[in-house]
Amino acid sequence: MINKIILILSFFIVISNNNFAQHHKKRSESFFGFHFDFHATESDSELGKDFDEKLLTYFLQQTRPDYIQIDSKGHPGISSYPTKIGYAAKNFVKDPIYIWRKITNELNIPLYVHYSGLWDDKAIHENPNWGRTNADGSKDLTKAGYISQYTDQLMIPQLKELIDRYKIDGAWVDGDCWATGLDYSAEMIKGFLGTTGLKVVPEDSNSPNFDKWLDYNRSAFKEFLRKYVDEIHRYNPNFQITSNWAYSSMMPEQVDINVDFLSGDVSGKNCVYSAAFQSRCLALQAKPWDLMSWGFVPINFSAGIHSPKSLIQLQQEAAEVISMGGGFQVYFQQNRDASFSNSVDINAMSKLAEFCYIRKPFCHKSTIIPQIGMWYSHEGWKKENMGVYGWSSNMEPINSLLLDGQHSVEILMDHHLETKMEEYPVIVIPEWDSFDHKLKDRLLRYIENGGNLIVIGAKAVKHFQSYLGVTFEGEVRAEQFNIGDIELGGITGINTQWQPVTTKNGTQAIGHVYKQRDYKHQTRHPVASITEFGKGKIAGIYLDMSTPYYSSKHPIYNKLVNQIIDRIYTDPFIKIKGSDKIHMVLAEKNNNLMINLINTNGEHFNSQVMAYNTISHSNSIDISLKVDNRPKSVTLQPDGRELKFAYDRNNKKINFVVPPIYIHSIIEVEMK
Is the pLDDT of residue 15 over 70? Predict the structure, then answer.
């Protein structure tokens, strides 16, 4: 009876709320937000009982977010509001979403819901025919099939119910592309055989035509995504919706479905570097985008046992995201009754909001100036990834290696490379073993015309064997050995795959392989090489560096890569010196140059450390920057402090010193 009364009251209150129209900020206009969810379960009861409305109001007033995202249905499939369509929690003392909506309306803050898409334990358990079919004919009782009735009978109707009842602004659909898997349902098999003309469906990765079966499932997922996005837009054209991790590192494709924005969430430890990588996978996708950092490191996620991150950790993660031009949001769990948790450090979050907002004029929607482009090969990803969608690559450690060398880096998927290749002075191939042949041919022409290429990886270099100016000796080996030389500052051991080569006449050797950690035991095998190719240069690094860089990080790795870049990109647009803990992003906004400097000091690489409260300032940073004319000013932002600079008219460069960086500073160079 209580639930019925709540439903009636909610209906009339929502109707009254609809009598006044508000302009809620669009996601494309948004910059900073918070995400809350708790993945309601069947054991949750008395939802809304302890909801402290004054506390939530105070939190929102102190932090001033551009939007809020809250739970509506998590992976267990239990709705955290009194749904008439799906499977709701046991009982409700108050309607939690109504309270969130009422307060966000009062403060004119857009409200989005977290809704689990393909992953729904309860609905699939109750309707097994909705589930994916495994290769052995059994049913997956947690994930929906791409062409099942789950979409029409539950997902789309529930999203419409949420729109009608609460006038929510949008949905952040979770458990979607990253929860995909092969579906061997009769409908999928029939469609695959009819489309391909094959007689048999591949059972596993060892079967013929498995790649075609994967591609068919990818197309089926995209049709599932397109269906609910388009239907919800038809129902309410102003509703804003995305699928978590769509068109990101987990789905490295050109956006061809009308999602309103892109988003993803980085969790666990070392999220400073994860945020840096994932931001670069979203930044060039021509959609509004943001990245969510978990406000805690989970110890036991489902039990709600967490280690909260410090303000400094979240500020560093935010800096990596906003410096790439995107928006930033932070995730905390709601209480089990769906209320706002009073364990959230409101003071810290207000400081985080201030940290972001004060940098917004210099960062948000900025355009990155092409310097180093790292190729995210779609063919390489498909070869490595034996799932439908999801992440499987060595790109993140290579991205970290380049960033730690103080280089401004962007990630170029195939469609970016096709349109932007010639804009980049240097392109890097990070250990891929397969490429689009047309793009590879264009890449060779790019080098002939003056571009520079670095190929990293024992297998990747074989694809450029004819152009590297070396002789390959034997096959790829996996073993322990030593690398380095005096120019690289010493010798260090490494355990990885490598391809032995010797240099031909005219090819520069960079570093050497050593039998022992002794300069007298240098072998004839270089670690890397550089040779001319047409008007450009091509460098090869003949070993895999991704795993060693994360498992046994050593400065020699950074010196190796930096020495290569210095020799092929001899007159760089920007050069910074002074600290190996600084990440640099070179951007443009409002016709001014923006040099983002991020201090990555801290224990985030230490697996034994979950939180740290202090970091050291960087050293002073020396910067040399190419300019066409003498700038009007060089200003340290967001401080508004003008910096002195020297103008070299002959070389068209300016040189200046930046004071020590604590977390994130931006150098604004205003041209006349």
Answer: no
Q: What is the Cα–Cα distance from 286 to 132, expressed in whole angstroms?
A: 32
Mention every residue, 6+ apart, whose C-beta is less than 8 A from residue 20. Answer: none
115 contacts 173 by C-beta, under 8 angstroms: yes
Give the C-alpha distances (Å, rounded to integers) separating 501 from 453, 539, 568: 18, 13, 20
Task: Tell me how far apart the alpha carbons of residues 189 and 237 are, in angstroms, rounded to a whole number.
Answer: 35
The pLDDT assigned to 22 comes to: 62
Number of other residues whose CB lies within 10 A of the CB of residue 442: 14
DSSP 228-273: HHHHHHHH-TT-EEEETTTTSTTS-S---S--S-EEEEE-SS-HHH
Q: 480 exposed, middle or buried (CB, 10 Å; 0-12, 13-18, 19+)?
A: exposed
Q: Which of 644, 629, 628, 631 is nearest to 671 (CA)?
A: 631
Task: State the amino acid at position 367 in one-letter form.
Answer: T
Residue 647: exposed, middle, or buried by beta-carbon count in 10 A (0-12, 13-18, 19+)? middle
**CA dihedral for 418, 422, 427, 429, sign (positive or negative):** positive
Other beta carbons less than 10 A from residue 479's beta carbon = 9
At which residue do the structure tokens 């949905």 appear? Answer: 171
Whether pTM exceeds 0.85 = yes
Q: Residues for the chain: how many in total? A: 672
Evaluate whether 86 touches 377 at the Cβ level (below 8 Å).
no
Element (H, E) at 192: helix 186-196
Q: What is the CA radius of gyration of the chain?
A: 27
Bridge partners of residue 543, in order along the sequence: 498
Question: d(Cα 475, Cα 329) in Å, to the nearest integer?
Answer: 47
Share of the chain above pLDDT 90, in %: 89
What span, in angstroms and rounded, lies between the C-alpha atoms of 569 and 229?
Answer: 45
Q: How many Cβ atoms sit within 10 Å of the Cβ of residue 197? A: 6
The strand pair at 240-243 and 262-266 is best described as unpaired
Has residue 477 got a pLDDT over 60?
A: yes
Among all chains, which residue has been given the structure tokens 């201090």? Answer: 599
156-166 helix and 210-235 helix, angle to the nearest 10 degrees: 30
Angstrom distance (rounded) from CA 182 to CA 135: 8
For 114, the enclosing helix (H) or strand (E) is strand 111-116
Extended strands (E) in 60-106: 67-73
User: What are 597-619's pLDDT values in tens digits?
Assistant: 999 998 887 777 888 889 999 99
Contact 567/236 with Cβ under 8 angstroms? no
User: Beta-carbon neighbour count of residue 7 at 10 Å?
Assistant: 16
For the residues 246-262, what does the mean pLDDT come to?
A: 98
Mean pLDDT of 90-114: 97
Residue 651's CB is within 10 A of a number of other CB atoms, namely: 12
Burial 112-123 (b: 16+ CB within 10 A, else e): bbbbbbbbbbbb
How far apart are alpha carbons 310 and 302 in whole angstroms? Answer: 22
What distances in angstroms separate CA 445 from CA 432, 440, 568, one per listed residue?
19, 9, 17
Helices (H), 76-140: 96-106, 121-126
SS3 sequence, 375-417? Answer: EECHHHHHHHCCCCCCCCCCHHHHHHHHHHCCCCEEEEEHHHH
Phi, psi at 318, each rounded to 5°: -60, -40
Helix (H, G, I), strand (E, B) or coil at 603: coil
Q: What whole-number distance in Å separates Cα of residue 451 and Cα of residue 445?
A: 9
Bridge partners of 28?
Answer: none
What's phi and psi for 426, nearest 5 deg?
A: -135, 135
